[in-house]
User: Fold this.
Amino acid sequence: MVDPVHSPARQYPESYYATTIRERVPVTTLDGSISAAVCIVGGGYTGLSAALHLARRGIDAVVLEQFRIGWGASGRNGGQVHTGQRRNQYWLERHLGKSAAHAMWDVAVGARDHLDWLIQNYSIDCDLRLGLLHADHKPSYLRDTRQYIEYLQREYRCEDVRFVGRDEMRSLVATDDYVGGYLDDRGGHLHPLNFALGIARAAHSHGAVLYEDAAAIRVTRKGSGWEVTAKGGRVLADRVVLACNGYLHGLSPEVEAHVMPINNFIAVTEPLGEDRARFLIQNGYAVSDSRFVVYYFRMTADHRLLFGGGENYSYKFPKDIGGFVHKHIRRIYPQLASVRLDFAWGGTLAITPTRMPFIREIAPGYFNSSGYSGMGVVLAPYLGRILADAIAGDRTEFELLSAIPVPRFPGGGALRTPTLIAAMSFAALRDRL
Assistant:
């Protein structure tokens, strides 16, 4: 397993995705001082999309990626395509009011449309497949699930979701663990690294410049603009975008007070064959369940089970990631107890106390978007576009999102990690009760 912090820039962490790359994108190496209208720190979904949309507007944008494009969570996640926010519409209505909650639903729908636009407009070959089952693992959850789906259909005119009962769920997913849930026809799954590289290719095609092995060291005010000091040189820019998510490493204490890294782990089995794969999950759907520490899984294009499960809260990964994930696979699919795992890896995402993204103008001309809490495949590229719009003068959606309360983690720098571990461990215990 390649170390998640000290990986060489020329090498992706070992994963199923890294071995099945189709997309290639021209990149360069930072050497000396350069100037740009906008310097974007982070070569994942947010930063790449911001660069694309700035370049489409004719705004000079450069991206600094510490290792390789899509090296972080954008190239390692489960590839699940969700519709909506990490918090449901009930929560948004209680905390933001009905009008703002409806506006946030419109953002979610816009984000989902934007993903289709990116893939179709730039011919991104990333194995997009539709259909996402949200599976309940406790009977007590079913009544609330049914009511929520009916509420979405009635109040938000959402025609892409429907309730799934126990018998249908068990005909779709070959496990006794789930008792029902709902199907999102606009949800689904894709190859996340090829998706990231496709956005990068699109950004480059419009003139954005992408630098790899260019880790940002500090961001400082320089006259009316900003200076980003990085490995290999520095960038003088009118504006800066932080798009680092869980990989800030001290770059912005202000952001890190609100956004915290956690690790999640994925394993991929040997090829199971088309018939066995179809038996385990019908229709090529992705599955995401109701546990607080979510299980998420799907079949790959070559009929392997890709399964995500388990978390920890530092930059250190378990020594045996495959063994760590396999126990979770056996909980859902005991019939796969002897299956061989061909790939296992970890990645660092970022969460906020409310699980809503932290999108802010930290200082005049200094922007941040991060903390997607597991919803980044759809939300992060769209929020990159929203940042580009704000920089270009259209701040409508940016102002809506930046008004969402995202408190600091309690305990400050010294205590926030043990506090989070205690809270997450308690939630994980509830999953098992």
Remarks:
- Residues 295 and 309 are 5 Å apart (CA to CA).
- The domain at 115-191+261-351 is CATH 3.30.9.10 (D-Amino Acid Oxidase; Chain A, domain 2).
- The two ends are 33 Å apart (CA to CA).
- The longest helix spans residues 98-121.
